[in-house]
Amino acid sequence: MEKVRTRFAPSPTGFMHIGNLRTCLYAYLYAKKRGGTFVLRIEDTDQERYVEGAVDVIYNTLEKAGINHDEGPDKDGGYGPYIQSERKSLYLDYAKELVDKGGAYYCFCSKERLDGLKDGNGVAKYDKHCLSLSKAEVEKRLAAGEQYVIRQNVPTSGVSEYEDMVFGHIAVPNEDMEDNILIKSDGMPTYNFANVVDDHLMAINYVIRGVEYLSSTPKYNLMYDSFGWERPRYMHLSPIMKDAQRKLSKRYGDANFEDFLDKGYLPKAIVNYIALLGWSPKGNEEKLTMEQLIEQFDVDGISKSPSIFDEAKMRWLNGEYIKQMSVDEFVEVAKPFFEKSKVKDKYDYKALAKLLIPRVEILSEIPEKVDFLEEFGKYDTAMFEHKKMKITKELAYGNLLAIRQDFESEDDWRDENLKQRGMALAEKLGCKSGQIFLPLRLALTGAATTPGGATEMAELLGKKESMARLDFSIELLKNEL
RNA sequence: GGCUCCAUGGUCAAGCGGUCAAGACAUCGCCCUUUCACGGCGGUAACUCGGGUUCGAUUCCCGAUGGAGUCACCA
Asked: Quick check: is A268 catalytic?
């Protein structure tokens, strides 16, 4: 059986966009699913867009995402170099070979002449002007050191076709394709060309990339044909959208892997979620590990239409991953967020973690959930009115006074003990326990939703602080009655 | 605009001629509970429109509409 080889070929232009990461993921999943090889290649032929350090971002992202490439700049598999700028010398020779085979030709046209070709809309299609140059003429101008580019020679009639693995049959009229530049005047190859040469040389037989290449793929195939190389199979992927009209992109922010990490998303959850954006597993289970993704990945499940990125769902998934964490694991990933909060160094993170795990979906919620421990003051007492529990401000006030008196002598301030005590008090007063605990929780925190029940909050705060807050709240209520 | 594609709830999506059209997120309600959560149960909500083909179309074909991509010495 043919050995599958796929690749991810990013340009080092900055952070890793979530859409790129998904393309990468699918290429990885497909290779692994078929027992093949996944190759990382850096496409840095455009020197102008190169960003310092961007290659490290790529390595870093793949590692965090759990995508392990089998070959790449740092893992030689015998098909290197894996960085295009280091392969520079290769391309010109192949371009010349293509010229000899009739698949390309030299072009000496000036920018001015090219501009003159543009129509009213500024759209130009090259007119194959230099294709008619005689071989002798070309030699002469080359020898004279004239600046040139090499263009692909696309047939002017007929139709180019191929079978895409997700979109099916694709047919493009040759006359709609242009003679694109293969070798730029600086001697560097364009993406189109470097891609074909490298994919062939690296024995990539499954090309997985964004739909933006769907309709230009026939041009790639034409090159493979001219060279006499075997065409790869193609799998094109629809884009991830921000909404129905706009593509999810850096321009709108929050589209990078790093951004989500900063917001407190777990790499596993991000990967799991984007795997589901544009692909659906056969079964109903959506929370899947990388192993399960590999196991279940299937071209059949890939969707042809663009999908809108839904952060709410990723958030839910993230919460699911957090819920299954141990206290230690949680403290480890949550630490930076604790440090950003007001409780920094003042509380036992483990104790907080226990309460937070079932209540937090993304880590950046931590400060807002925990700041009340250090921040307490005047709040809206309307919260004490609770219809369903039959609690009014008057009742709350009365119960709070009773609680204060009853708890005063208690020195065991642990959650369990306080809970018992509260229950006993409720019985003594002949009221529902909720009528004790709800007012107490509010009096202690001043917040409608808290990361735990009344007595858990009390334990965290300690007796001294708890009593002080009780007094404060009692006073606050008293003034309003 | 030309060309290439795409079209099921608010979102992700199953479906591949006959289904009361799955499931998940979101949303709403109920239950559990000792208050916040977790959890459990249930509800609302979709085949873009018009022609065909067929005994029968969400499903196949054509058209319209809407959307995406592409038309660089960027990838």
From this structure: no
